[in-house]
Write a structure and sequence with these properties.
Elements: E1 5-15, E2 20-25, H1 30-33, E3 39-43, E4 48-59, E5 62-67, H2 73-76, E6 82-87, H3 97-100, E7 104-106, E8 112-120, E9 127-131, E10 136-140, E11 146-150, E12 155-158
Parallel strand pairs: 7-12
Antiparallel strand pairs: 1-2, 1-6, 2-5, 3-4, 3-6, 4-5, 7-8, 8-9, 9-10, 11-12
């Protein structure tokens, strides 16, 4: 697997006076991604900054993070708004949403339906958008439809039902 930066959150603003930042979570495993001692990269319009997490807690629907070397609110003012990334080399084995983009979607009759162009996360279920020859189609990313994923071959095998 190629090593690349994977977005896991967006720093919205500072929180309190002790140098915490409020983060919109964009990962399904915040406890793993924001673990104390984890290395992340902050990408803002000016630079890429390597940081190490030394504090993590949840607040409502957001993560509150504290980074080594950022002792107060003044010190974090330069790092928001910005995006948080983790190196793909830090990820566990498995299939990640970024790997699905560009995969060919094939139905149970081995008919190629199109190519995945977007992965969308919603509270009820995740959805993939595929580009077909005539229009985009949305497929719920659930076991009922997704039967097999082969990341090496860049293929997603689905069970197509009426109306899809």
């Amino acid at each position: 697997m190629e090593n690349r930066a994977i977005k896991i959150g967006t720093i919205i603003k500072g929180f309190g006076i002790k140098g915490e930042v409020k983060v919109r979570i964009e990962t399904d495993s915040p406890e793993k991604r924001f673990k104390i001692g984890s290395s992340l990269q902050i990408h803002n319009h000016e630079s890429i900054i390597d940081v190490i997490i030394d504090g993590f807690r949840m607040h409502q629907e957001h993560a509150l993070l504290h980074f080594e070397g950022y002792p107060d609110l003044t010190s974090v003012e330069t790092i928001f708004p910005s995006e948080l990334f983790v190196s793909s080399s830090e990820l566990e084995e498995g299939v990640y949403s970024y790997q699905l983009i560009g995969c060919t979607v094939i139905d149970q009759d081995n008919i190629v339906l199109g190519t995945v162009i977007e992965y969308m996360q919603y509270p009820a279920q995740d959805i993939i958008r595929i580009k077909t020859s005539d229009k985009d189609k949305l497929i719920p990313f659930v076991d009922r439809f997704i039967k097999r994923i082969d990341i090496e071959k860049k293929e997603i095998h689905i069970e197509r039902i009426a109306g899809l």
